[in-house]
Amino acid sequence: MLKKGNKFYSILTGTCPRCHEEGMYLDKNPYHLGKIYKMQERCSTCDLKYKIEPSFFYGAMYVSYGLGIAFAVAAFVIAKLIIGTTLINTFVAIIGTLILFMPIIMRISRNIWINLFIKYNPNFAKQNT
Ligand SMILES: [Zn+2]
Fold first, then answer.
1. Whole domain around residue 91: which residue ranges?
2. Tens digits of residue pLDDT in 56-80
3. How far is the CA of 83 from the centre of ligand 1 (A)?
4. Distance between CA atoms of residues 10 and 20, nearest Å
5. In a domain, 2, yes or no
6. What is the mean pLDDT of residues 95-106?
7. What's the pTM?
8. How far is the CA of 121 from the centre of ligand 1 (A)?
9. How far apart are CA 14 and CA 12, in angstroms?
10. Structurally, how many domains does the chain consist of?
């Protein structure tokens, strides 16, 4: 699953959605919160402009809602149904999970969002926007 050419590769590693050759972010680590949204302007390999249009990445917010809910459901299932904690502790576990994974959720949503619009293309040969 995690090979170049697969969308999951770009989504999970934050690499350029077109050539999968290099990272889109200035700092790979999403927990360096000051730089969480700092991206390269263009891919230096295939010259893709990441911000396809102004405020392109606002759309990633919708993806992050969905991802946030998925993480919350997972935390609920693990805490309440598997471990069997009380309702209040389940609630704490859900909030804690969301806070803990928020930087990853933010990054992954951006990666999913841009991958909805850009297809992998190994023969990128400077076809540009
Ligand atoms: Zn590229």
1. 7-127
2. 999 999 999 999 999 999 999 999 9
3. 44
4. 6
5. no
6. 97
7. 0.90
8. 9
9. 6
10. 1
